Amino acid sequence: MEFIEYEDFKKVVMKTGKIIEAEEVPESKKLIKMKVDLGGEIRTLVGGLKGAYSPEELVGKVVIVVANLKPKKLMGIESQGMLLAVEDENGIHLLTPDKETKPGLRVW
């Protein structure tokens, strides 16, 4: 593992986001397209969550989003951030606050 300086870490802007819409990307085996509220700003995110979560399970979840990641096209859809998750032998698990949290808060 390579260590980074605190100044490098401060460049990463993570925020809480509430998933307000989700749908499978039909041409993909893994991708789900989501609309995420980052506290008044709605972003489109695309994540490889199919099989771990249904779109219906995702709607309403508050998640952690890397908000200043350069947008990237996945299957022709521009993803404007990245959800944080972990994966183990039981599958993918989204990182979520342990208490009710509003969207748009900076994660430190």
Q: Class in CATH? A: Mainly Beta
> Mean pLDDT, nearest integer?
97
| Fold-level CATH name | OB fold (Dihydrolipoamide Acetyltransferase, E2P)
Rg, nearest Å = 14 Å
Tally of discrete structural domains: 1
> What low-confidence regions span 5 or more consecutive residues with pLDDT below 50?
none
Which secondary-structure class do the elements indicate?
mainly beta
Number of helices: 2
Described by the principal axes of the CA atoms, the overall outline is globular
What does this structure look like?
It contains two helices and nine strands. By secondary structure, the chain is mainly beta. It has one domain (13-94): Nucleic acid-binding proteins (OB fold (Dihydrolipoamide Acetyltransferase, E2P)), CATH 2.40.50. Strands 3-2-1-4-7 form a five-stranded antiparallel β-sheet. The chain has a two-stranded antiparallel sheet with strand order 5-6. Strands 8-9 form a two-stranded antiparallel sheet. A hairpin with a 2-residue loop joins strand 5 (72-74) and strand 6. The two termini are 21 Å apart.
